[in-house]
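Notes to self after the call with IL:
- keep both proteins in one doc
- input above output, always
- annotate only the second one for now

Protein 1:
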Amino acid sequence: MLDTIARPFGLLLMFLYNITHNYLFAIVLFTILIKLLLMPFQMKSKKGMMRQQLLQPEIQEIQKKHAGNQQKQSEEMQRVYREAGVSPMSGCLWSLLPLPIMLALYQAIRKPLTVMMGVPKALLEVSRNGEAVGDLAKRLVEVAQAHGLNFTASQLLQTQIGATKIINDYFSEFSGLSDKLRPMNFTVFGLDLSSVPNFRIWTFDFSSFKALWPMLGLFLIPIITAFFQWLSTKISTELQKNMPGANKEQLEKQSNSMMMLLLGPVMSLVFAFALPAAMGVYWMVNAIFSLLVDVFLTKLYEKTMLADFAEAEARRKAREAELEAKRAEAEKRRAESANLQTENTSKKKQQQKKKQEAAGRALEYQRAMNPDQGEKYNPSRVGNRPYARGRGYDPDRFSYNGIDGAVDDTSSIDGELSEEIVEKLEKAALPPQQENDTPDTPDTPDAPAQDDGGVESNKEKDL
């Protein structure tokens, strides 16, 4: 199944190799052509991601407004995406497409005879016990034994790279077996791109550069690949920061997060040391080309995105103004309906309204009767209780004839009487103050006044 999927990519890689006769150049051209074929998907994904970035302020507002209602939050977010013509899943397709292409390329590198050249599988058939059954498999074993090479037919079950090298070195001995066979050299600039890089640098031969370069060059391919992966992630994050509407705080955290920066490069480093060096070359070229395309598309869409951002901001502000006007109108209607009682007004609301009115009247009365504010004095008040001593309480009930400030002996009153006292005396029909020959007695509340005059005689007459 995987061979069938990888066959078109293998044909393309073989076509490029026949043109260039260089395995490295064929891998580089293959990577660039695949990126160009996927360019429409990347452009659509980039545009969708930039539009989503512009909608982040509105999305954050919705998340804050409907934090306790996930269903309402999801509905509002879908409405915003639908009105803007943005699909939240637009970037997922682009992120998934490179995976099957990478698997197809790996299959083409691992099986160049059947996937790239199209040699029939029957010629390479091997039994379960590892014996060669196909004609090409038998010839490979014979040539390997004749030249003292370490090769067995069972290796064809895992990879065809070793068999392809034997065919390339002794191509004349395989003539007539299949017209699909082609000589293919994996070595470029002294590096065997079909070999797996060795990370055990302490095992390298440092005796001479000629002996060191084949192993050191392969060792540097995963390192360079990881570096460009890191650089691509770093520059992409910096480009997102400069976009309008970007959440700079969150992007700053991502750019400072070691996990986000090192996840992709570390994965590339691990896989590049576990697979043939040709896969590392593919990842390295892919990272460089993706970085250039990302910068180009960002600059290309930036102007149009700025216009879209201004339009989105204007639309958001208009919606906020409309909601604010509706909210003010609702508050106004609520305030008007609070004082309007109709036949449909419930008894509970009527009772509540009466309680509020009674509480308001009580509050107004309390303010009017509060002696602490210097207003009307209420002698019956004790604290907040306005009639604690009774409604008819009179603090001067023991004074003469109930006149406030009047006593039976007025000889101690010095100076003129106040107008208020005079008025009360007139109403009580009391005679004015007369001279008294008796000596003045001290004005004490405990000593009753001694007067043989008219006041005392009037009391006796009354008795």
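Protein 2 (the one to annotate):
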Amino acid sequence: MLIDISGNIYAGRTPPEHYEQLIAFLDEVFFRDDDPETKRDFMSLLPKLYQPRYDPCYNNFCVMEGDTVKAAVGLYYNTVSAGGEALRCGGIGNVAVARDARSKGYMINCMNQALDDMIASKTDFGLLGGQRQRYGYFSFEPAGLQYSFGFNLSNIRHCFGSDAENILDVREIAPQDTQTLEAVERLLRSESCYAPHQPDELYDILCSWRSRPFAAFKGEAFRGFFTVGREGGLGDFKAVDADACKEMVLAVFETVQNPQLGFTVAPFDKTGLDFFTVTAENCSLRHSECYTVLCFERVLRAFLKVKAALEPLCDGEASFLIHGRAGDENLAVSVKAGVPEVAKSQGPAAFELGHHEAMRAFFSLSSAERRTFPPQIAQWFPLPMFTYHFDSV
């Protein structure tokens, strides 16, 4: 902890006895009094994080003046399985400073506490949503891949026929629907990249950002799930196979009652990508989140394996000296017979990259640094990092 000379300033994890004050503080900072449509209730926004059973005080680094919380940054750890590798992930959220405590460096202090904790606990990568330059100071960079496909009623008529009808039974998921939640989790874990969820926490996770989760069935056979945002737009979407994609599209349109929708598809969801590529009205590709990588060796190895499962990788080898936020890494990266490998290297590196340069070269849609790579090396990138909306913080 940090204490000023007057003994009035505390910096560290939020003391547990200040739970109610922490939640009230977040409500005060994040919601406007002049918006009648806004419910001042941070708990309903992210029940997966702020219920007492999830210990939000321990997961929030704060600065307090006396007994009053004046700033807080949430840090929530999770595991991500990518290419068979278990990666430690730190998600940062609820970056908040009281209106009467701005320009005192409190947010910087909380963010640095969070980054220091991530590095000390050997976290592989972190993520957050927020303004690029604001969080660039703390090593985050827009990165990853997210496909969005525009689909409308005209597409349905031409692709499926004017008489196409929904044949699925769509049911809103409830907390007690254990078997359905288990089916959702099995579907997510069928991909080469996923974040494992505890069964008793998945419902709260799917309800993130005040979303409503739905599952679709043909008879009693589970065909997929989707979420609907509080303003009626489509959130996350995933079907069990190609036939289910067509069935699910019709089910979603009937449920949401909107003439046009955007379907977000993960870059490793080959079923969804292949279906929408030949049916959707349009496609856009954007970054998934702001990410920072704190162990390039493990993250590169894992996501090269994910990409190798999606498409053939060119054989080749390259060496990189990366001056990362968590320290320097000298790595030899190779692909042989389509199989990637990443290992520590002692020799001179062909490419020397700063932290942000490495993030862009390996994980961003566009990179000046990547354009200097040999073509067979550049083909490996960008790597398909992605975060479902319900897994973001």
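Annotation: Residues 146-286 form a domain with the Aminopeptidase fold (CATH 3.40.630.30). DSSP finds 13 helices and 19 strands in the chain.
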